[in-house]
Amino acid sequence: MVASEKANNVQGTSSLPSRKADALVQSPRLQSPSCVPRNMLELPESCGVRNLASLEDAYERCRQITAKYSKTFYIGTLLMPPAKRRAIWAIYVWCRRTDELVDGPAADLTTTETLDQWERHLESVFAGHPIDDLDVALVDTLERFPISIQPFRDMIEGQRMDLYRSRYETFEELELYCYRVAGTVGLMTTPVMGIDTTPRTAPWDRGEVEDPTKEAIALGIANQLTNILRDVGEDARRGRIYIPQQELALFNYTEEDLFNGVVDDRWRELMRFQIQRARKFFASAERGISLLSRDARFPVWAALMLYRGILDEIERNGYDVFRRRAYVSGPRKLTYIPIARLRAAVL
Predict the structure, then answer these.
(1) Could you give phi then psi for residue 2, rounded to 5 degrees?
(2) Cα–Cα distance measured from residue 8 to residue 228, given in angstroms and rounded to the nearest whole number
(3) Distance between CA 303 and CA 54 in Å, rounded?
(4) Taking a C-beta distance cutoff of 8 angstroms, is the pair 192, 145 a contact?
(5) What is the pLDDT of residue 208?
(6) Could you tell me which residues are beta bridge partners of residue 292?
(7) CA torsion angle for 246, 252, 253, 256 (degrees, to 10)?
């Protein structure tokens, strides 16, 4: 279970974050190899004649990207065994690259054809044929862990939604979006985390190995909802509103109010409602942690608690997400670690 930062975002209870991700080709933040055409994801014919990065270099680049763009998530990965943390870094980087096709500096160039080409790029990676340096780490991860391609495809579908939608009428519509861009992270990472196959001996246990898939998806959705609430102001500046239209109306809060950054009793009540729902998803995700391999429980607990802490910070900021970005400070992060360790040991 690893959680996703919305741009910042499983079969397992996850915390990758996904909000959405790091620039694929033309962003100054993630430079692609020279053999990758500037025409976004057009697959290069000449890559076969150049040497790609070594495996160690590819994983190190993934580590650096994760550490730079998702500090909270990165802390959680450091608590994992080396092989698992490296695999999570590789998955995280793919998610960032996918996300920034729609949310990154070159997003204006992205079309449905771009995403079609990125999906073909994905198929090449799953076939064991890396196209650029960052692919090298993901190909190795796929060889080591039984990861399905479907969650990756579903995440690309989530990016398609952002190409043509800037509003969601109901929470059911938003939940589908959250699954695609973040819940999928749980499905990607659970095979890396591993499931505890130790026979259960308590009288109420039936003895079978339980599947934490639902909890993994719940954690991804919880993370995405948290990202949405943290980034309301940033999204508004892009002309996007992720809070469902029905719920804005329920609290008599208008789009004009949101674009003007109005923080009043209506907004505070609306935010309390949204935060309560996000916390319910976090609570649903908690049970799945005990189903993971023992060496994955501590980092997942830590990641979950650190990310859920953003909701606490929104409350401390008086629900003003327009002028103050909610984040968990370094000293406060340290208070979560011993609690996460204890919960991993006893729950």
Answers:
(1) -135, 145
(2) 11
(3) 30
(4) yes
(5) 52
(6) 195
(7) 100
Q: Which residues have CB under 8 Å from 208's CB, separation 6+?
A: none
Which tokens go with 210?
Answer: 């339980």
Q: Is 118 in contact with 101 (CB distance < 8 Å)?
A: yes
Cα 163 to Cα 41, 99, 179: the distances in Å are: 16, 11, 17
Give the pLDDT of residue 197. 84
CA 197, CA 209: separation in Å to the nearest integer? 6
Q: At 239, phi and psi to the nearest 5?
A: 80, 15
Cβ neighbours of residue 39 closer than 8 Å, sequence gap 6 or more: none
What is the DSSP code (8-state) at residue 292? B
- DSSP code string of 238-250: TT---S-HHHHHH
Of 330, 346, 336, 345, nearest to 302 by C-alpha is 336
> CA–CA separation, 179 vs 186, rounded Å?
10
Amino acid identity, position 248: L
**AA identity, residue 150:** Q
pLDDT at 76 (0 to 100): 82
17/260 Cα distance (integer angstroms) = 29
- For 54, 83, 94, 200, 336, the CA distances from 37, given in Å and listed in that order, are 21, 32, 18, 53, 44
Tokens, residue 253: 């809060």
Q: Which portions of the chain are predicted below pLDDT 70? A: 1-50, 199-209
- Are 127 and 67 in contact by the 8 Å Cβ rule? The answer is no
Handedness of CA 21, 23, 160, 187 (dihedral sign): negative
Are the beta carbons of 126 and 142 closer than 8 angstroms? yes
Alpha-carbon span 283 to 278, nearest angstrom: 9
Could you tell me if 337 and 301 are in contact, meaning their C-beta atoms sit under 8 angstroms apart? no
pLDDT for position 159: 96
Contact predicate 177/220, CB 8 Å? no
Residues in the chain: 347
> Residue 195, SS3?
strand
Pairwise CA distance, residues 50 & 60, whole Å: 20
